[in-house]
Amino acid sequence: MSAVSLQGVGIGWRRELALFIDRMPSPGFVEVLAEHLPPTGPIPEPLVRLRKRGVPLVLHSVSLGLGAAEPPSSERLSWLARQAERLGATCISEHLAFVRAGGIESGHLLPIPRTLDALEVLAENVLRAQAALPVPLALENVASLFEWPDAAFTEAEFLREVLARTSASLLLDVANLHAHVLNHGTDADAVLASVPRERLAYVHVAGGVQHGGLYHDTHAHPVPSGPMALLERLARRLGPVPVMLERDDRFPSETELSAELGAMSLALERGASHGGSEETHG
Amino acid sequence: MNARERLSQAQAELVRALGVGGPVPAGFDTARVQAAAQSLIHKRRRAVEHAWPKLVLALGPDFAARFDSWARAHPMSVEPDPRVEGRRFAESLREQGPLPASISGVLLDFDARWNWIATGEAVRRRGFALVIRRDTFTRRWQVALRLPGGRVMRWV
């Protein structure tokens, strides 16, 4: 078991999905964006209801920039710690990315170079964050359209190094991994094999779209078969893993959303029932 | 230089290439970085479209092109808040020429509710707030009053 003990199939909370999530019979867990929570005052009523129902809440952040040359500021960290406490979050997740540099906000999660320099800085930043946060931290792999030159590690090696140098858990985004398979020829099986079950907090699944020869991880389109297949392969290695759907825009009908969540459950079942045919070393 | 300094320089160069059309740093795939830059602008625009539907309606098919060129010249220096992004963009339009009356009213209403600064932050006003200004083009006075509780009265 991971330091973060989530289970089942969950979903990312968005205002537009509040009613749908309210009606879900038993969401495994619900992820809440830290940047969407009001900085002060009460937390939104639907989230209070989820907590009363006993649904574990995970706090997801996009603005720390753990991979940045500049370490996360103590103001930012105490803001995030406060949000986690207000929400009653069981864990916090952030990205293996940077979001600002040289006084400019990119407004996006930018990839970090897979070099020793970046690894060293990242590990220090993660330690600093962990010391300031009240609950376990999980780190997420991001999707990008380009790669840094002169990588010293493959993506799988880099993830292994991150796990070796920190005590953080991993939030594995199989949609981002799918994007990297298509955009950069990343070896998906090597990445899946780099994740030991006890370090895996949960898994993200999201939709995207192929455009101009590149796969864009939009969270605004249906989930293609690629990420679902990766989820199944992961479950084949590790058994059923906690997984959730991210949808941020162009919200589909409740029927479509339910179908995607159902397909995720099915992928887990199919994978887990074929488990054992592959080695599950970490 | 230590690891942080080397990383800092490299990340700043990349962010300039992505945010303000700076040169793509050596070794990167130029077309890919440009595609990412375009996708970042698209993301900014999409957020502003959500926050300012009336501005999108007023500008019609020109919205995307005008927003994109404004956005390239105005990188974000604080965390993106689409409300303020849209307001700053509208301000740049206001400086260029007369705005449709529908938009003037929406901007006035926004200004009565939010105290925003050009670097991109907004704080919700409390209690009474009065906004009085003279339209640059029509020379007419515009007045908005926010009442405690949040109701805004306008005289445009």
UniProtKB/TrEMBL annotation, chain A:
It holds the Pfam family MbnB_TglH_ChrH. Gene3D superfamilies: Divalent-metal-dependent TIM barrel enzymes. It comes from the Bacteria. PANTHER family: UPF0276 PROTEIN HI_1600. This is DUF692 domain-containing protein. It comes from Myxococcus landrumensis.
UniProtKB/TrEMBL annotation, chain B:
It comes from Myxococcus landrumensis. InterPro entries: SCO6045-like_C. This is SCO6045-like C-terminal domain-containing protein. It comes from the Bacteria. Residues 9-94 form the SCO6045-like C-terminal domain.
